[in-house]
Amino acid sequence: MKFIKIIAAVLLCLGMVSQAQAKSALQDILNNSLLKVGTTGDWNPMTMKDPATNSYKGYDIDVMTELAKDLGVEIEFVPADWKTLLNGVVSGAYHLTGSASISPSRAKAAGYSTSYFSLATVPLILAKNADKYKDWSDLNQSGVTVAATLGTTQEQQIKQYFPNAAHKIVDAPARDFQEVLAGRADAHITSNVEAYKLVEKYSNMMIVPVSAPKSPTPVAMLLPQSDQVWINYVNTWIALKQERGFFDELGRKWKLSN
Known about the structure:
Oligomer: single chain
Radius of gyration: 21 Å
Distance between the termini: 68 Å
Order of helices and strands: HHEEEEHEHEEHEEHEHEHEHEEHH
CATH class of the largest domain: Alpha Beta
CATH topology of the largest domain: D-Maltodextrin-Binding Protein, domain 2
Strand content: 25-35%
Helix content: 40-55%
CATH superfamily of the largest domain: Periplasmic binding protein-like II
């Protein structure tokens, strides 16, 4: 009788595993030969959308294209914005997202892949204001306005870093750096990887030479929280690609360090 109970328990576990596999996004991807990826298209050099061709390019785009290739399926990039990026994963609008900062608040509703890259936060200003703003404390002053984009990690960070300054939150497709360029904000904060690209593109902008960047943060893909089958597959893929130098090669291609 005890042996029969053990066999029954094993069969039950196998049945549960089989059901989990059947319900997984991985099976949906393989059945339909299509990987759906949520991406914002507004984070240089990670994901950039060309409105003229409705196409995307960037570090994230290369990562996801490689994932689809190894899965043996086609890829569809689903337009998203930062304030709804998480909701798209939860609702099933796409199977996973491109890079997103790992945060406890997002982890309440979605799962994360293994991290494959880290970034930190720096402030940017107009170069003409170089003498006014030389470190974080110079921006944390009454009369200073700091911008951030709605739904991003930076939206929370400006409240933390600059409690004495005014906060200007802009809604996508508008971007926080545009407020600085237009003179409606004195500064904005972003990841160091985007900061390098912004000052390269806009010669009148500069990174504040702060004593140190803030909030070193790993980035990863957002996935459905309860779909361990899909999470396990993606993590296995990331580990293999890391071992073979794929992410290092992409980092060099997209110049993810200054």
